[in-house]
Recover the amino acids of this structure.
């Protein structure tokens, strides 16, 4: 028993030393394996697109509404019940055609009453003339009596009382003549007044028949037979007639920043939802100065004329308008994504690359002060690939066959919002067929195959 205990005591320190050695070896092994992992740098792969050569068009995009050249709202000038509608939606009408009738009974009655009033006024004129004739006869008689009484008074045969009475009767007869003449004038005035009332009643009766003012097509009808229209304050609209749907307009809303590039006479193309695969052509006829402001966005109306011989397009359709303002043939053009690309490098590395290839870092927005961070945030601070204050130059990154990148400073021309023209290369070389970086793939990005723009 004692021999076994002594053996156990002798082997116990040996086991402890062995355990410690194993643990130490494991720690050393982990540390050895961790050093390469800690020292491993981020691996970046750049992806690019080709620089192309071909036509590039700069255009103004706008949205508009299709309208008729002339659109007339036909209403009623009199109130009443709609008795008849002779046309409906899409009806073709000619100028002067009867398109609706308001119930005329009340207006016929008003006309008959006005005609009766004028007959009465004419009869009053005849009576006034008869009164004048009677007054003239009475004047002649009283004048003779006055002359006789005056002659007798001069011969001292008649009395002064008889002379005064004869003179009073003569003055009254003259006043009656004047009154009869005035009565004739009043009767004639009443005849004129009643004639005007007849004309108004006849006009109102004529207004119950509604006629088309133009040749065109009925595009809207607002009432039905039996409906009452009231024209007390304003004429209610019954029909809307478009004059000629074979020639139409597009009212395009153009942003104020694009107004200076649009001129009358420019050729325009547009599409509508009804015919998404068909391209329609028109011409800018007018740029109206009346501004429209919606939520602080200022737009102006560009009026576009176009032919619609097959009557495919209807008033009110939405048109998606493209107005070409500049075209360059055989232009060297690069994808706009290359202008937005920011290399995921520290600011110091970007400045070093700029200096290596002879690009002024301060001109491109990179000052000498260090910028914290890297990747997309640092690229946003650096401003690499963005336009300068003159808005005509930028830096893009040329991709070489070995995977390295080179900054190239270029001058920019027009853009079609997918590609931008390269008008001049300031630093470096760039020609059709070269690759420019548009994206980068990092091995340390979160999801596999993560892309940084």
């Amino acid at each position: 028993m004692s021999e076994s205990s002594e053996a156990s005591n002798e082997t116990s320190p040996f086991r402890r030393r062995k355990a410690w050695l194993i643990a130490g070896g494991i720690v050393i092994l982990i540390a050895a394996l961790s050093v390469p992992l800690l020292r491993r740098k981020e691996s970046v792969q750049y992806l690019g697109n080709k620089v192309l050569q071909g036509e590039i068009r700069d255009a103004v995009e706008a949205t508009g509404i299709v309208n008729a050249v002339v659109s007339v709202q036909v209403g009623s000038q009199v109130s009443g019940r709609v008795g008849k509608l002779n046309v409906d939606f899409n009806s073709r009408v000619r100028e002067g055609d009867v398109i609706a009738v308001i119930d005329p009974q009340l207006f016929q009655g008003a006309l008959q009453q006005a005609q009766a009033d004028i007959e009465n006024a004419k009869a009053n004129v005849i009576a006034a003339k008869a009164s004048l004739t009677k007054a003239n006869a009475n004047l002649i008689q009283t004048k003779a009596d006055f002359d006789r009484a005056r002659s007798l008074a001069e011969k001292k045969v008649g009395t002064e009382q008889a002379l005064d009475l004869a003179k009073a009767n003569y003055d009254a007869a003259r006043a009656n003549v004047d009154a009869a003449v005035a009565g004739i004038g009043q009767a004639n005035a009443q005849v004129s007044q009643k004639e005007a009332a007849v004309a108004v009643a006849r006009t109102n009766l004529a207004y119950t028949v509604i006629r088309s003012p133009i040749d065109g097509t009925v595009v809207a009808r607002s009432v039905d037979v039996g409906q009452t229209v009231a024209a007390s304050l304003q004429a209610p609209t019954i029909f809307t007639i478009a004059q000629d749907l074979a020639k139409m307009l597009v009212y395009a809303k153009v942003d104020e920043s694009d107004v200076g590039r649009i001129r009358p006479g420019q050729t325009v193309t547009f599409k509508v939802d009804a015919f998404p695969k068909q391209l329609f052509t028109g011409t800018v006829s007018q740029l109206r100065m009346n501004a429209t402001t919606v939520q602080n966005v200022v737009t102006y109306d560009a009026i576009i004329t176009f032919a619609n011989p097959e009557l495919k397009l209807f008033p009110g359709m939405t048109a998606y308008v493209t107005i070409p303002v500049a075209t360059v043939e055989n232009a060297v053009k690069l994808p706009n994504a290359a202008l937005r690309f920011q290399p995921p490098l520290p600011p110091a590395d970007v400045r070093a690359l700029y200096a290596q290839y002879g690009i002024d870092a301060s001109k491109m927005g990179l000052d000498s002060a260090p910028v914290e961070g890297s990747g997309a945030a640092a690229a946003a601070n650096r401003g690499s690939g963005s336009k300068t204050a003159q808005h005509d130059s930028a830096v893009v990154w040329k991709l070489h066959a070995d995977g390295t990148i080179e900054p190239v400073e270029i001058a920019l021309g027009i853009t079609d919002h997918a590609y931008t023209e390269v008008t001049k290369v300031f630093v470096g070389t760039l020609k059709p067929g070269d690759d420019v970086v548009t994206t980068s793939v990092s091995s340390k990005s979160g999801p596999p195959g993560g892309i940084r723009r």
